[in-house]
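Example record used in the benchmark description.
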Amino acid sequence: MSGTYFQVIAHYHVRDGEERAVAGFLSELALASRTEPANLSYDYFQGVENPGHFVILERYEDEAGFAAHRESVHFQDIGLQQIIPRLERRRVESYEGANVA
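Model output (structure tokens):
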């Protein structure tokens, strides 16, 4: 596969005691996000040394695909309403990448 893609890396730092809830909501969000037309992958990881730190790796066909993700009902309901209020802080980075055949 060749071409470019849009990569998002998010770091979520969860409030004490919210780790299990956030992990559950991220599971739901990941399943729904993977069904989006422009989504190429959506994975998340929980820190071993710091279980309150989650890293989310999202890949979309382009920046417009990521923008559509942020407008989706599942992101609005799960991400904005359920996950973000349980965070101490977050950092979201975006990159353009190239697939090389």
